[in-house]
Write a structure and sequence with these properties.
The complex is a heterodimer of chains A (810) and B (199). Chain A has 810 residues and is α/β, with parallel strands linked by helices. Chain A contains 21 helices and 35 strands. In chain A, the strands form 13 sheets. A 6-stranded mixed beta sheet of chain A has the order 28-30-29-35-27-33. In chain A, strands 3-2-1-8-9 form a 5-stranded parallel beta sheet, with helices on both faces. Chain A has a 3-stranded parallel beta sheet with strand order 12-13-14, with no helix packed on it. The relative contact order of chain B is 0.07. In chain B, the strands form 3 sheets. A 3-stranded antiparallel beta sheet of chain B has the order 1-2-3. Chain B starts with 6 loop residues before the first helix and ends with a strand. The chains are: A alpha/beta (810), B alpha+beta (199).
Chain lengths: 810, 199
């Protein structure tokens, strides 16, 4: 989230698209209710189903799964056509005026540079025109045909209301009503917020769905505003933290990158991360990359990381592919190229697509280690559960170790909520039986491996032998020690580069990332968390819930990264002179000498408003309507069909799915067509359950005991399916049996002149736990992923459905 | 709106206060004593309160856990009750149907309590000690890493990656667990590293 849950009360219009917050985030959703009750805010829901969020909305429209880009580009076109643009914001705070290279273009659904063989774009033309001074050329009048604004105008031209209706199935009148409601928020004192979740990410073009809305929010001037922003409703309680700390193939904590093998040495690695400003006078804060990176290397390897050995650059693994993400790892496993696999609180048997392939892959491992508080499907993948897991244990040679861990009630530490708040929690219960903290387990594994290397030597032991491990009790590092390590501390005296004054003495905890240095005098495991545990103590444990000005910020409650800032880009809440666009929504304002207000300014405190742009992380100093070559599938979002679709892409019928989406050769033959599988399926959550966890809780298992699928009355009639009867749902990769919930909440849509039926598949059942045994959507979903994030396409795929014989009554 | 008085203290006061204020004020001194003697102490008054956050979605509602026994003093603590934390700015004491049933998640019948091993081809689990389990894991890591570690690529560039092992990290563990996991996994050169954010 750019903003916070509590900030939603400040909005005028909530758009829930790609999510179902009332059901999946109930206590956060009540801030929508608050805004509706106390500000007269309105709520729009666009979703294939009439969800529980829709049931309290002011306006609802259906949409065919996987067509959000067409809808959003249609809204942008409508806003441009009808002068619903926050012009001063667009001119000054976006890259609308920057000129793009002459050789950039778009036709037949593809941007310039597509190579069908490689399934990749040559992105060199997707860039600005750079002048002799090294800065991008601009046309502040926005009239130059090569400026971003004119190119965007041209790009969205195809997305007429008729086009939108034809592709998305959203009736034209409903689409236009929504355009009008959204358009009102282009006024500087009207603000819209976007609340989205996996309904937007789990597509082969998920990142572009989100780009589409971010662009709309910029055009309306809603980024950086109270009650505005792009609000990703993260799924799990610490998915934000795990991402921040970079537990992904290609990440280093704080959104730094693991090198590729083309970055043969430290100098090459840094040379592509200089982040020089491409407009005069801009901050381009990533220029400090080397300070964050050196401080990370010092946190990892301490005295073994020196200027002489390039901070132990050699210790880092180097990637030969963009990422060894989950899909790639299971593909390699299936090819017999993975031997050991660890699942720490993760249940891939239900969360990774094409379960048949997952079972087959796990069966090829030598050893699987599962650390979990619960007995999961993954740790039991080898066990026969009849139709629910029809395997032959004797044919599976994988050794499985199941290790009991503690859960939240028994451990201590911080979780990061969707609004980037790091909140500390304390243990209040004794772990059951022999369950252990994950920190203890990881320490035990590490220390035992290190001891084997000390004793026996072996393959490149240096990064293991020299890993910093100076905890009071090496066997069980304390949460406090680990949190302090992430925050960072001074290794030598840290001085102010201009005054020479000492800002942090050797050994002291740092108070912020501004104190980080690239000369080895500081260490920090995760630079964006600097300030979370300072010399003043644990900032994440703060519990002062006062809220000056009723701004919804709560600055003294816990700690928010970065720098305790509650609303990202808050500089953009004020105009070019530094005066708030809306006086009732003050966040920060320029007082002639510095920025001050309710929030921590997202700009240098004395940066003059007319000189320094508000988007300080960007080289341009402004936000991007056009993203240059930063996304693999285009600098603007363009309509792409899901890999499995009832309708060919009207922009280019030859194009299947995302032309650069993640798909492996071995899975292409496993993709369905609509001749055989005519119905569109989508997965979703229910409010009574949390993923695959709460089916272990007898209370939740009683609330929603049994796997079902949801279909319209029209589809039920067409297939002869009675309300509450048993059905078989099958796709190209598997089959499931479920109760049929026949509902008015789903209605057939008309796309390309033909009716499209949607089958809703909730995701909470498996073969372990207290609930009745069932299946998850992953028995049916395709093994394909997003072009940028590799996130699997769970939200749009094809199935068939028919009545099935009832189960025998036991 | 900070409540300085702990909720447990408040309840204790409130329990005693019913008799003291309503009867004592009317001059029923003896009746007050008799009343106080038979009023049962509020059950939660004898418990230990701990502040925590809900482990489910990313709203991260504040919760208060009530336990018999205090883990901070080394006692065995049994979790008795969980409720929403009224001081928390986001949820202000409310919980959803999942959060409201959290206590029964902690006590789920399928919570794991003992390390187990399933041997190749076996159809049943066997119990294993922590020590043996961890030794098996460490040995498997060492042997596979030594056998399959890629020190340099074809061009002779040091790449130091180990691709025959992978690690899927959790989504509800603490930042501190995440950091220790990061250190351990990266020091070994594992690149098949991912977390629930991917899906």
């Amino acid at each position: 989230m750019t903003n916070a849950w509590t900030d939603i009360k400040n909005t005028d219009l909530v758009v829930v698209m790609g999510g179902n917050a009332a059901e999946a985030h109930p206590c956060g959703f009540k801030w929508v209710t608050e805004a509706k009750a106390h500000r007269g805010a309105r709520l729009i829901v666009v979703d294939p189903r009439y969800t529980r969020t829709a049931s309290v909305s002011d306006y609802y429209a259906p949409i065919r799964p996987g067509t959000d880009i067409a809808f959003l580009m249609g809204v942008i076109r409508w806003c441009m056509d009808n002068d619903k643009v926050q012009w001063e914001y667009v001119r000054n705070f976006t890259n609308a005026s920057l000129l793009v290279r002459e050789d950039f273009g778009w036709s037949d659904g593809l941007f310039t540079g597509y190579d069908e063989e490689k399934r990749d774009f040559d992105k060199s033309s997707w860039d600005y025109q750079i002048g002799d001074d090294g800065f991008a050329l601009t046309d502040p009048t926005l009239q130059d045909p090569r400026c971003v604004w004119q190119l965007l105008r041209q790009h969205v031209d195809v997305y007429t209301p008729e086009f939108v209706e034809n592709v998305t199935g959203t009736p034209r009148d409903k689409f236009l009503t929504i355009c009008e409601m959204i358009g009102e928020c282009s006024a500087p004192d009207k603000v819209m917020t976007s609340m989205y979740a996996l309904g937007w990410t789990q597509h082969s073009k998920g990142a572009q769905n989100i780009r589409g809305m971010a662009m709309l929010q910029l055009i309306l001037g809603n980024i950086g505003m109270r009650g505005g922003g792009m609000n990703a409703l993260r799924g799990h309680s610490n998915i934000q933290g795990l991402t921040d700390i970079g537990l992904m193939s290609n990440l280093i904590p704080g959104y730094l990158n693991i090198p590729t093998e083309k970055e043969v040495d430290w100098q090459t690695y840094l040379s592509t991360r200089e982040f020089r400003p491409i407009r005069p006078g801009q901050t381009s804060y990533w220029q400090n990359y080397s300070k964050f990176m050196v401080s990370f290397m010092k946190a990892m390897w301490g005295d073994a990381a020196t200027a002489e050995n390039n901070w132990a650059y050699e210790y880092l693994p180097k990637l030969d592919v963009p990422a060894y993400d989950i899909l790639r790892m299971f593909e390699l496993m299936d090819q017999g190229r993975v031997n050991l696999y660890f699942c720490q609180g993760f249940n891939p048997m239900l969360s990774i697509p094409n379960r048949e392939k997952i079972t087959r892959s796990l069966s090829k491992l030598k050893m699987l280690v599962v650390m979990d508080p619960l007995s999961t499907e993954t740790s039991h993948f080898w066990q026969n559960h009849g139709v629910h897991n029809d395997v032959d244990p004797s044919a599976i040679q994988t050794e499985v170790l199941e290790l009991p861990t503690t859960c939240f009630a028994e451990d201590e530490g911080a979780l990061v909520n969707s609004g980037r708040w790091l909140q500390w929690h304390w243990p209040g219960a004794t772990p059951p039986g022999e369950a252990k903290h994950d920190t203890w387990i990881m320490a035990q594994i590490f220390l035992r491996v290190r001891e084997l290397y000390q004793r026996e030597g072996g393959a490149f032991p240096d990064p293991i032998l020299n890993l910093t491990w100076n905890y009071a009790d090496p066997e069980e590092p304390l949460p406090e020690e680990l949190a302090k390590e992430m925050n960072g501390r001074a290794l030598g005296d840290v001085t102010d580069p201009t005054s020479g004054a000492v800002v942090a003495q050797a050994g002291q905890q740092l108070s912020g990332f501004g104190q980080l240095r690239d000369d080895g005098s500081t260490m920090a495991g995760c630079w964006i968390y600097a300030g979370s545990w300072t010399e003043d103590g644990n900032m994440m444990a703060r519990r002062d819930n006062s809220d000056p000005g009723d701004a919804g910020l709560f600055l003294n409650w816990a700690f928010a990264w970065p720098a305790n800032r509650r609303i990202l880009y808050n500089r953009a809440s004020a105009d070019l002179q530094g005066k708030p666009w809306d006086p009732d929504r003050l966040l920060i304002a320029w007082n002639g000498e510095k920025w001050e207000g309710y929030d921590v300014p997202d700009i240098a405190p004395t940066a003059k408003p007319t000189e320094v742009g508000p988007f300080i992380m960007n080289q341009e100093g402004v936000s991007r309507l056009f993203t240059r070559g930063m996304m693999r599938d285009g600098p603007f979002p363009t309509h792409m069909e899901p890999f499995e679709t009832p309708m060919a892409n009207v922009l280019n019928p030859r194009m299947r799915g995302n032309p650069v989406g993640r798909v492996f050769e071995s899975d292409v033959a496993n993709l369905a067509t609509s001749d055989e599988f005519p119905f569109v399926a989508t997965s979703y959550r229910l409010t009574e359950h949390f993923h695959y966890w709460t089916k272990h809780n007898p209370v939740n298992a009683a609330l929603q005991p049994e796997f079902f699928v949801e279909i319209s009355e029209e589809l039920a009639a067409e297939r002869g399916i009675a309300r509450g009867s048993r059905v078989r749902v099958w796709g190209k990769r598997g089959e499931v049996w479920a109760k049929a919930v026949v509902t008015k909440r789903i209605k057939p849509m008309v796309c390309g002149g033909k009716p499209v039926h949607v089958v809703g598949i909730p995701l909470h059942w498996g073969f372990m736990g207290a609930a009745k045994k069932g299946w998850g959507p992953n028995s049916l979903t395709p093994f394909v992923g997003d072009a940028n994030t590799d996130t699997p396409e769970f939200k749009a795929f094809l199935v068939n459905i028919e009545p099935a014989a009832e189960e025998p009554v036991a | 709106m900070n409540i300085d008085l702990s909720r447990r203290g408040f309840l204790r006061l409130a329990g005693a206060g019913v008799a003291a204020t309503s009867l004592g004020a009317m001059g029923f001194g003896e009746a007050e004593a008799a009343e106080a003697a038979h009023v049962r102490a509020f059950k939660l008054a004898t418990t230990t309160e701990t502040r925590n956050t809900c482990p489910y979605c990313s709203v991260a509602c504040g919760i208060i856990m009530y336990s018999k026994g205090d883990v901070k003093t080394g006692e065995t603590a049994e979790l008795l009750h969980i409720e929403g934390d009224a001081d928390h700015p986001t949820n202000r004491g409310t919980l959803c149907p999942k959060g409201a049933a959290l206590k029964d998640f902690v006590h789920a019948p399928t919570r794991l309590t003992q390390p187990r091993i399933r041997k190749p081809g076996a159809s049943e689990w066997e119990e294993i000690s922590w020590n043996d389990a961890l030794d098996r894991i460490a040995r498997a890591i060492k042997d596979d890493r030594d056998e399959n570690f890629i020190a340099t690529n074809e061009a002779g560039t040091p790449v130091n990656r180990w691709t025959t092992a992978g690690f899927l990290a959790a989504s509800a563990t603490t930042n501190e667990t995440a950091w220790l996991t990061y250190k351990t996994v990266r020091s070994m050169g594992i690149v098949g590293f991912d977390n629930q954010a991917r899906v």
